[in-house]
Amino acid sequence: MAKNTAKRTAKKATRTGASTTRTGRSTTRKQAAAKATRKPRKPARPSKPDIGGGKVEGVLRVRMYRIGFGDFFLLTVPTKTGPQHILIDCGVHAGNIKTMDECVKDLVKETGGKLALVIATHYHADHLSGFASNYDDFAQFEVGGVWITNRLDPGDSGAAKFHAQISSLANQLRLQLGARKDPAGAQALDKVQNALGIQLGAGEVGNAKALKLLTEGFKNKPKTSYYQGGDDPELPEVLKGAITAQLLAPSPKDSGGTFADADNKKEQYLAAAAEGGLPDTERLTPFEKEWPATARDYPTRAFQEYRTTEQIENDQNGSPKAMEKVLRAAQPDVLLAMADALDGTLNNQSLVILFTCQGKKLLFVGDAQWGNWSYWLYGKKVTGADPGITKNAKEILGSIDFYKVGHHGSTNATPIPAVSAISEKCVAMCSTESGDPDRKRPYGDLDKGTEVPRTKLMVALEKQTKNKLVRSDWIPAGAVKASPEAKSELAKLPDNFSTGDLYIDYTFPG
Predict the structure, then answer these.
(1) What is the DSSP letter of 216?
(2) DSSP string across 119-141
(3) Fewest CB within 10 A of the end CB: N or C in the chain?
């Protein structure tokens, strides 16, 4: 019987030149005849899906790409149909180490050009620029859905108007700050350009181009949803039953004003500046002509907060120019204040998302600053003494297994009450860039205690998480070496962390 079977198989092979087994593999005539005489085998176990770093099954993983001062996170979720991928932001700005293109190419390879969900937390280049600089790469992606903060919803007239005002103000500030040569002015200019997305090879419409990609540029034209805290987000079909998402912020727009996540007065101030133009910071308004004066016309104590009368007189003999110099040095820097307000306002529009998958909780907070945090930590605006975070906030922070450190480790994010409430079982990732060995920073100043990432915050999070905080600059990438500062904070990677040429992975234990 076996010989007859072999003959029939051999004849069939002769006609077709080859035969195809049940597994779909092509075989030669000789191999087909030999297989026909073998005893049937037990069905092979299905191969495990490959989601990078080897074949695995049912793995929940976070990948943090090293691109410099920015966010580029890939969350891989196990589902019934195999691994699905969620992309959370893709951008870099100050501290750009020129690896974005390589990282996007790795993303394409890792996901096969398919993303179940793409999330853009807020309108800053260090979270969006990759969508603009690599527009053509992303245009080939098939995407299940797109989530964007509702502060960018073009269907909301208030949101659309304020967004236009912010862009107008950023352009005005850019022109004035561009003429300054001082370090503080340079950092302020970076903040303003972050709101526009220029400087990155994406043209003068960088952030706008990124937003266009997100809303209409993907290959299959997925649905775009605009969300705020408290909304019940719609998950793409492939993620349903595998993961849930709770939106914690930004605060609802009807919770105390059109935009309640930050100080309303600050936003009114920015809107007014955008409409009315920037104040003149090039000169001081002179005294009326009938009130001429020199330093000698005032008592010495009038200048004790600044300089003595004698010091002023030695500078151009107490002339109006010398007086103006003193007064100018004493007044607040309006342009820097506006740049800070602009930066903080956009950060506070960040989507804050709590994912739950396989019993693990993951918190992604974008660049949320105090106004954004206070909404869901306290349920209200808080000034003065800390009244204590709500029971719900304590439960959330005390249960998380993963925390994406807010705003690249800045001192104006991750409030002290939040740090102390985070579970000790939690691991954390911080996408950041410490800058050059000569102490230059993309943002902040070591000597002033404003450096980003803030050293004291990194130490506090390391302590709270039992040394399970990993920074993106812990590894070398491209032509840039690992940060000595990051290495000194963490001598070796904690359990379940691994690295590639461009990224750090955290794979949740089963």
Answers:
(1) I
(2) EE-SS-HHHHHHHHHTHHHHTT-
(3) N
